[in-house]
Amino acid sequence: MAEDDLRLVALSLISEAPRHGYEVIQTIEKMTADWFLPSPNVVHPMLASLVEEHCLTASADPPRLFTITDEGRASLEQNRDRADAVLGRLNALGERVTRWRNALGMAERLKDADADATEGLLDVLARASMQRK
């Protein structure tokens, strides 16, 4: 994810409610079904930069609680379409990952339930795949 996109995501999440840096990271991780985990070494300096730019305020004592400012809200609104698009992509990724994991889990359950049935299913899928070519 590009740093500018990450900045917009952070501003958007913090606009919903004040958050700590690790909460921003955990929220993104949850949105993507644990597929994407932004590095704290990227997120925390980026949040500090947003504080310097007066887009966020931070509590004095660690762990710092970040709150969006009027300037941050204005910046977010200027980039609302892009922020919504990035958030949409993250949520879509999470949905795809969840479907993929569910499909893999179903294949594992089929294998465990009946090895012969699984082999038969795999044969049918292989023949169908060959017919498409």
Explain this structure.
With 133 residues, the protein is mainly α. 74% of the residues lie in helices and 7% in strands. The chain is built from six helices and three strands; from the N terminus they run αβααββααα. The protein has a three-stranded antiparallel sheet. Strand 2 (56-58) and strand 3 (65-68) form a beta hairpin. Helix 1 (3-16) packs across helix 3 and helix 1 (3-16) packs across helix 5 (80-113). It starts with a helix and ends with a helix.
Task: Tell me the overall shape.
Answer: elongated
Structural class by sheet pairing and helices: mainly alpha
Number of E-state strands: 3
Strand order of the largest sheet: 1-3-2
Name the helix and strand elements from N-terminus to C-terminus, one letter apiece.
HEHHEEHHH
- Rounded to the nearest angstrom, the radius of gyration is 21 Å
Q: Kindly, what is the distance between the CA atoms of the first and last residues, rounded to a whole number of angstroms? A: 35 Å
Low-confidence segments, given as residue ranges, are none
**What portion of the residues fall into strands of 2 or more residues?**
5-15%
How many helix segments? 6
Largest sheet: 3 strands, antiparallel
